[in-house]
Design brief:
The chain is α+β, with helices and mostly antiparallel strands. It folds into two domains: about 1-75, Nucleic acid-binding proteins (OB fold (Dihydrolipoamide Acetyltransferase, E2P)), CATH 2.40.50.140; about 80-155 and about 190-250, de novo design (two linked rop proteins), CATH 1.20.1440. The chain is built from seven helices and eight strands, in the order βββββααααββαβαα. The protein has helices spanning about 80, 85-100, 110-125, 130-145, 180, 205-225, 235-250; strands at about 1-15, 20-25, 30-35, 55-60, 70-75, 165-170, 175, 190. A five-stranded mixed β-barrel has the order 1-2-3-5-4. A three-stranded antiparallel β-sheet has the order 7-6-8. Belongs to the RecO family. Pfam families: RecO_C, RecO_N. It comes from Kordiimonas sediminis. Involved in DNA repair and RecF pathway recombination.
Length: about 250
């Protein structure tokens, strides 16, 4: 059995003395793992860094086996973001969320396309750091949708109105208007305005936090708990950093 195509590195770790265990997100074959001969050495080690874009060939005598990757570096976003802690933190959160959320070897081309686009956005955009976190929120919205747990933000669950939608019901995953949700404010999730329109360049830190809290709520209950996973540590670090930034801006 074999396949070849493009992939994005989600993680790599040492496998034996000199090899590496590589986890990638590919467009046609989903989240996939395999070992790389010499992958922990000086030549290939830098190639297998999370977020790198690779040309891959996977081969195994039996489909169910781990299999072996041969890899070539297509390009790396790390050169442009190295030294920028928040960009690196966001990139790490993105790949870790995909790794924690998707079943192995299940085709999710829309998630691959979204991950690719969001990495490129973080790589090249000079927006406020909260804008990069908002890109992660959009990636997570796409993951939820692709797994069948998408949020319905088209109209108010209580009134059917499509105006002034500012909450999401944690039970139905549907939007709720300000007026209908006011009596239940403490029981509803906040819907940040940047999710209600086209992609915007400027997103406030608090709005980014609200977005991560929103998608994180549904990912944890619908996806991570089912897969016996905890929220990815890289995502938690990014969220904590944003909360710290928000507090400093108030002080």
């Amino acid at each position: 059995m074999e396949w070849q195509g493009d992939g994005i590195v989600l993680s790599s770790s040492k496998f034996g003395e000199t090899d590496a265990l590589l986890e990638v997100m590919s467009r046609e074959n989903g989240r996939h793992r395999g070992f790389v001969k010499g992958g922990s050495g000086k030549r290939l080690g830098p190639v297998l860094q999370a977020g790198n874009f690779l040309t891959l060939k996977w081969r195994s005598r039996i489909e169910e086996n781990l299999g072996r990757f041969t890899v070539e570096l297509d390009r790396s976003p790390l050169g442009l973001i190295m030294g920028d802690g928040l960009r690196l933190m966001t990139l790490s959160a993105m790949v870790s969320v995909v790794s924690a959320s998707l079943p192995e070897r299940e085709n999710h081309p829309a998630v691959y396309d979204s991950l690719k686009a969001m990495i490129e956005y973080v790589e090249r955009s000079d927006v406020d750091p909260a804008g990069w976190a908002a890109a992660l929120v959009r990636l997570e919205m796409g993951i939820l949708s692709d797994l069948g747990y998408g949020l319905d933000l088209s109209e108010c669950a209580a009134t059917g109105s499509d105006e002034d939608l500012v909450y999401v019901s944690p039970k139905s995953a549907r939007a709720v208007s300000r007026a209908a949700g006011r009596p239940y404010h403490d029981k509803l999730l906040t819907l940040p305005s940047f999710l209600m329109g086209p992609v915007v360049e400027e997103v406030g830190t608090r709005a980014a936090i609200e977005g991560l809290n929103l998608t994180g709520y549904f990912l944890e209950r619908q996806v991570w708990q089912v897969r016996h996973r905890t929220p990815p540590q890289a995502r938690e670090r990014l969220l904590s950093k944003l909360v710290s930034m928000a507090k400093k801006s108030v002080d």
